[in-house]
Amino acid sequence: MKLTLFSLTLLLAAGVVIAQQPATQATYMDKAAIDAALSKGGPALTPRAAMVTRNADHMVAGGRRDAPGDAEQHEKAYDIVTITEGEATYVTGGTLKNSKQTGPGEMLGGTIEGGETRQLKKGDVIVVPPGVPHWWKDTKGVSYLIIKVNKP
Hints:
Layout: H1 2-19, H2 31-39, E1 50-54, E2 58-65, E3 72-74, E4 77-92, E5 95-97, E6 100-103, E7 106-108, E8 111-113, E9 116-121, E10 125-128, E11 134-150
Antiparallel strand pairs: 1-2, 2-11, 3-7, 4-9, 4-10, 4-11, 5-8, 6-7
């Protein structure tokens, strides 16, 4: 867990630089808050997930997946994911298939054709830049901490 909190701290610091907007307050998340976020379950942006902090610049949440997700692509958001338990097959790049626009600059649904497939496991971190399709193709009870940083 120390590695996860250390990674979270570094990634949040990097997120402030990426967003290029000055921070006006620090956000502190103790171990209990992180553990609660990771134990709730559900994909990171569903009602079952635990939001740790969120504003126009960023979002930090805990998530859990026991089944594949829909492919997605964000025009202006970085997704920074730290795997805290379990394993998953994660695909990045390639071309979205059968997705639809769900909001400005947001595509969701379907799968990915092509792309790079990775086997993620506990301790792994993956950073998906804006514009890159990504997809939880297969999951084996994976829990993760996600940091989403919106660029201007």
